[in-house]
Amino acid sequence: MHPASGCSDAFVAHRLDFTTGTRLREISTYISNGAGVAANDLDNDGDLDLVFASVDREAEIFWNDGSLAFTSQTLDDRFGRGVTIVDVDADGWNDIVFTHRGLDGVSFWRNHGGDESIRPSPLAPRPSFTLQPLLGVDSYAYAMAWGDVDGDGDLDLVTGSYGVELLQHGIDSPAADPRAGVVLHLQQEGSWQAHVLDREAETLSIAIADLTGDGQPEIWAANDFALNDKVWQRDGAAWNIVHLFDQTSHSTMTTEWGDLDNSGGLTIFTTDMNPYDISPRTLAAWAPMMNQIEEHRAAGDPQVMANVLQVRDGAGRWQNQATRRGSTPRLELGRATATWTRTVYSTCMWSTA
Ligand SMILES: [Ca+2]
Ligand SMILES: [Ca+2]
Ligand SMILES: [Ca+2]
Ligand SMILES: [Ca+2]
Predict the structure, then answer these.
(1) What is the CA(232)–ligand 4 centre distance, in A?
(2) Which residues neighbour 233 within 8 Å (Cβ) at sequence distance 6 or greater?
(3) Whole-angstrom Cα distance, residue 198 to residue 220?
(4) pTM, whole model, 2 decimals?
C-alpha cells in the first residue's frame, strides 16, 4: 500500500492539555509506572474519543471534535492506572473502566448516552457517566483486559495485581491475599464469577489474544521484575499454562499486539526498562543496574533485558525478531505506558512499498 498524496509516512505530534505525575513529592523506586490512555467512541458519533487515567489526580475525557481538536472534561475517578473504553453492559454505549494504584480494584463508569431519563445533562448532548458496581469483581487491579474468553458472547474480565505495590500498602504477603493475583472474571448474565489463575502477580499488562492460531483466545499476563510472563490456554472449564515463547522481556512494562508489520498475521511487542535518553552518561548510569539483574538470572530463564517483538515463523513458532526488525534493545518505547500521557499522534496510511 502506498501512502496517499501529501503523506509524510511519519507520525505527527499534537499536544493535549493533560499532565499526570506522582502523588509523592520525593521519587523513589517503583513509585509509579505511569498511567494509561484508552481510545474508543464514547458518544457514538463515529470518531475516537480519549480517556486518560492519572496516578495523581482525576481522570480526563477528551471529546473528539474532529480535525484533531478535542474538548476535555474531568471525570472524578482518582489515582487510576489503567483505563479501557468498552461496552460492559452491551447496551450500545461504550463505558469506561479504570484500574488503580494501591488497594483499589476496578471502577466501572456506565455510559448513560442512550438513557433519556438522565438527560438533559450539563454536557448534553454528550453522554453522562455514573459509577456503578461490577458485581462479583473484588480483586486488586493494577492491569486488566476485557474479552470474551469463553466464547459465550459476553465480555469477561481479567485483572492482575502488582505485588510490590501491595507490599508498599501494607500487604505483607501479597501471594497469600485472596484479592491478589491474576484473576479471570467470567460474566454470567450481568455478574462476574472469579477464577484465580495465579496468586503471584507483578502484572503491568494483560493481553487476550489468539496466540496459538486456533481461533480461541489465550490469556497472557506480563509481569515486572524476575517473575515470568505467563500464558493460559483454555481446555473446557480449565485454564492451563502453556509455554509459547523462547524469549520474553524481563521486566515487561507493557504489551501491544496486532498486525504490526502488515503481514496479515499477529505480531506482539513488549517493552522492557530502557532509558529514553541514550547518551553515554545515561547509559553509564543505567548499565550497571541492568547487569546486576542479569547476573542473578537462572539458567534457562527465557527472559531478556530488552524490548521483544514476537513474530511467527513458517512453522507457526514465535520468534523474537526485535533486533532483526530494528527495535534496538536500548531505544524506543521503554515504559510505553508513560509515553502516552500527553500527546496524540496522527499518521498517514503505513507504507510497505
Ligand atoms: Ca466520538
Ligand atoms: Ca454500555
Ligand atoms: Ca464470555
Ligand atoms: Ca488459541
Answers:
(1) 9
(2) 212, 216, 218, 239, 240, 241, 242
(3) 12
(4) 0.88
